[in-house]
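Box 3.1 A note on notation
Throughout this textbook, protein chains are presented in two layers. The first layer is the amino acid sequence; the second is a token string describing backbone geometry. Keep the layers aligned when reading.
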Amino acid sequence: MSGDGAYVAVTVMNGSNRAKDHPAFNDYGLVQVYSVRGTKLAKLAEAKVGHWCQGAAWSKDNKTVVVQCMTEKNLQAFKFDGEALTPSGTVALSGGGAGLRTAGQ
């Protein structure tokens, strides 16, 4: 969830963690962003990510979402303008990302 509570980012494995011959396999996962309005969520944006991605974190200004991907062993960053996600780079990791958070104030 974004720091101000306005958005939530969700990682969807989308079958990307399955064997390639499995009927539910997809060659990508997804990151989805929803706006939070009271107790209602509204989907705003979606982007493809790598395989077996788990966890997302927001920048303080809600303009960047970072997703960690186990198979690719990287962090995948996306710019968010309130309506769309745009890939903005990756950061290599020495192993698969298994825990992600942003620093508190």
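The two ends are 15 Å apart (CA to CA). The first strand starts at residue 7 and ends at 12.
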